[in-house]
Amino acid sequence: MTENPFPLSKDDLLRAYRTMRTIREFEERLHVDFAKGDIPGFVHLYAGEEACATGIMMHLNDNDRIASTHRGHGHCIAKGVDVHAMMAEIYGRSTGACRGKGGSMHIADLSKGMMGANGILGAGAPLICGAALAAKVRGDRGVGITFVGDGASNQGTFLESLNLAAVWNLPVVFVVENNGYAESTAMEWAVSCDSYVDRATGFGMPGVTVDGTDFFAVHEAAGEIIRRAREGGGPALLECNMVRFYGHFEGDAQTYRAKGEVEALRASRDCLVMLGERVIEAGVIARAELQAIDGEVAALIEDAVRAAKAAPLPAAGDLLTDVYVAY
Amino acid sequence: MSRKISMKQAINEALDLEMRRDPTVIVMGEDIVGGTGAHGEADAWGGVLGVTKGLHAKHGDRLMDTPLSESAYIGAAIGAAACGLRPVAELMFMDFMGVCFDQIFNQAAKFRYMFGGKAETPVVIRGMVGAGFRAAAQHSQMLTPLFTHIPGLKVVCPSNAYDAKGLLIQAIRDNDPVIFCEHKNLYGMECEVPAESYAIPFGEANVLRDGDDVTIVSYGLTVHRAMAAADALARERVEAEVIDLRTLSPIDWDSIVESVERTGRLVVVDEAHPRCNLATDIAAYVGQHAFGALKAGVQMVTAPHTPVPFAPSLEDLYVPSAEAIAAAALRTLAPTGTTPRSIAA
Questions:
Q1: Rounded to two decimals, what is the model's pTM?
Q2: Which fold is adopted by the domain B2-194?
Q3: What is B206-344's CATH number, 1.10.3670.10, 3.10.290.10, 3.90.1740.10, 3.40.50.920?
Q4: Annotated catalytic residue B224
Q5: Position A263 pLDDT exceeds 60
Q6: Taking CB atoms and an 8 Å limit, are A135 and B83 in contact across chains?
Q7: Are the beta carbons of A103 and A116 closer than 8 angstroms?
Q8: Which among B79, B87, B115 has the least Cβ separation from residue A108?
Q9: What is the ipTM of this complex?
């Protein structure tokens, strides 16, 4: 093995690859199982976007909070939420992360600093301002990260939160996951400015745009602005340009996308393949090591699905529990 | 030690005592300090009507002015609550819920259930409610039924300074999200209030006046109209029992039903609009659970199905009056042809 040219140790690179592979395997499996009719409701898949969640979350600990989106499985996995609990939740089982009462769009694990996927677009931004305020009041050096898509970047809640975070000098990073589509509507049409950096500047904070399919670019940019926020430097915006391999939701025929668009993206901008090839080419990690991870992850997801299907449904009495702490 | 103070002072005192007791209590809102960033007096306003006046001097940065940005700061209060603080966020006029309701009903109210019982969101959202302040359609509403409809929220609306202090202290200590509705026309009203700290449990109505002929249930400002109506009825030898709900969610069904089972007659008074409000809610509950006790149809006295008007002459017609409440009580006596015991005696 040659000298490691990357700013991450081999262990960290393996960890990043494992996280991204886990997200990919999780989502690809949901794609298949949803089509079979095994999964109630609807799911929004993060496949193709793994480098963003992973590159950011590697800088965080359990004391740091994130607020996620409707497309939240990748954020959950990267933040350390248990994959078995996630799968069981998506299957509506009592062993789920939310005991089957949240589902795909509301997976949360506060013990991991994961404040919830969110069915309301842009709603996580004010919440994460509050999480960051709590960290600031306690002086515990925690930071808050909120994710929004390019679609929700037009929500008032998001724009108001940029202002509030700047005025209160909160340790918040606003991550715009720009996959080019607000559901079916093109970002180029729906967002009035040319660059999210301009939007950040308008709110008095730095903004950075990176190729969100490049794990190393995300990791480096996120590291810098998270460190800045942690040290009291205030909020910042990070735009990750990325690609969505599936539709807005599963079952979306994606007739609004150009013919061959998705196939071309999979061939040329697959963040997982790109990370793997780079570390192999640099001679830091052997292909066999990555293949071993692939195998372990496949077994993990298979076991998560098996366990979810075998798990009990919530009891009828659970309908009425946990509305209040006390009432 | 007890002394007479206003409801405004009682709320200020509750915030002060809880901020002293618990360092995780923070208070935020628009102009609750006043003049932040400006070059005049420090602590200039203490809230638009001065409810938080003087607290900044005592508690410093734990009292935070916010930008005019309700979605952001109400959401931030909720997020901070989910992360271990006990924020009290002032919405100024509760009518402003319209620009931040998502954070209240889709976020705060649902965290606990949606996350499988693993979240606590001990936030208090205070705001002014009610008409009679010549503040017109967007600063005068009694929107309590919109909140009571939502599982996960608790809803409080005190009628006097004593209750306001004890209920707000309870609200801050409570581990669920609480919507604390302060009737602006009661701010100046004084009553005996102990200087020390005390909490009033939620879900316990207050029977302000005993009577065996008719039960009158209300909350907030109209409690006082109900009491005036009861005085007028007493002059006609009709003894009304007056129940002040104090909290609307949870609600003290038992006290209502017990009273109706004794009086057989019910008048429900609500300053909210007439459809799907507390009055209809209570009427339906009594219809289902105490139908056999009723000697007459339940009477509802509410605001009309209109926005709140500006012209004082119209606004005075809008809020349920003591006369309307007394007339409703008499209607419950009329149809049966029976004579109330107090009159028969």
A1: 0.95
A2: Rossmann fold (3.40.50)
A3: 3.40.50.920
A4: no
A5: yes
A6: yes
A7: no
A8: B115
A9: 0.95
